[in-house]
Specification:
Layout lengths: L10 E7 L2 E7 L5 H7 L6 E4 L3 H16 L6 E4 L1 H10 L7 H17 L5 H9 L2 H14 L7 H11 L1 H5 L12 H17 L5 H19 L4 H13 L7 H9 L1
Parallel strand pairs: 3-4
Antiparallel strand pairs: 1-2
Helix pairs in contact: 1-2, 3-7, 4-6, 6-7
């Protein structure tokens, strides 16, 4: 935030599913932002990194859901982040190569599952289970040999989040990692290096709205330029605007 706010560091929050991206701009990384989103959502599984704010968000959201007898949210953790911890220390700890090799096999099976039916995806994911179990056993053996340091952090990340890292094995709708959401943020992070920041809170929030529409268009394979032309036309004519998915469905029909 270049000006117009007493808080200089603002953050772009991202939430998405296969057909919708919602980006929001706030002056905090507090988990309260996630709580406000989740409590009004139908989310059943939240895929994220291991930032503590997300665990708190799902925990508090589930308290309210339990009162209302709604489905509780499960936390699924990102395997790309877990793997990255080992990748970063591979030159200093040769033991890290074992975990990278297991993840290589896991991601190869994940690649093979692209475009397959749900039952075929589950069959391939069940083949990943021995690799995860081997990493867990090895990490438990090694943990006591490293009282501190980055390698211990990598081991702890795997062991402490093992349940969340393996939820996807039995649910074909859950992704192996959070890379899809990371990609939705990438162009705007790169763009920030060009325009440096925003000049007002309103500008930041307006940018987040436009980013949300553009990324949702991309998720639905809709040309944003064509979508915006039709969106503005419908608004000027007093019509109810279509979402990018609705616009695509109308175009196909």
């Amino acid at each position: 935030m270049l000006e117009g706010s007493s808080t200089k560091s603002w953050y772009l929050w991202g939430f998405s599913n296969p057909t919708l991206c919602f980006l929001d701009c706030h002056d905090t990384r507090s988990g309260d932002i996630a709580i406000n989103i989740l409590k009004n959502s139908n989310c059943e599984v939240l895929i994220s990194d291991v930032y503590g704010g997300y665990d708190r968000a799902t925990r508090l959201t589930n308290v309210e859901r339990q009162k209302n007898q709604k489905t509780l949210i499960k936390n699924a953790n990102c395997n790309a982040h877990a793997r990255r911890y080992f990748y970063k220390v591979r030159h200093d700890y040769k033991e890290a190569e074992f975990y990278l090799e297991q993840y290589h096999q896991i991601y190869q099976l994940n690649s093979d599952s692209k475009g397959k039916s749900k039952s075929e995806i589950i069959d391939l994911r069940l083949q990943m289970k021995p690799y995860f179990e081997a990493m867990k056993i090895q990490a438990e053996k090694e943990l006591h040999n490293y009282p501190k340091g980055k390698y211990k952090t990598a081991l702890n990340c795997l062991l402490e989040n093992y349940k969340g890292l393996t939820i996807f094995l039995t649910d074909s709708d859950v992704s192996i990692d959070n890379n899809a959401q990371e990609r939705l943020l990438r162009s705007h992070v790169v763009g920030r290096k060009t325009w440096y920041g925003t000049h007002s809170e309103r500008g930041a929030k307006t940018a987040a709205v436009l980013f949300s529409i553009i990324e949702t268009c991309k998720l639905n394979q809709v040309n944003p330029r064509i979508y915006f032309q039709n969106l503005v036309k419908d608004l000027l004519e007093g019509k109810t605007p279509h979402t990018p998915k609705e616009f695509k469905d109308l175009s196909v029909s």
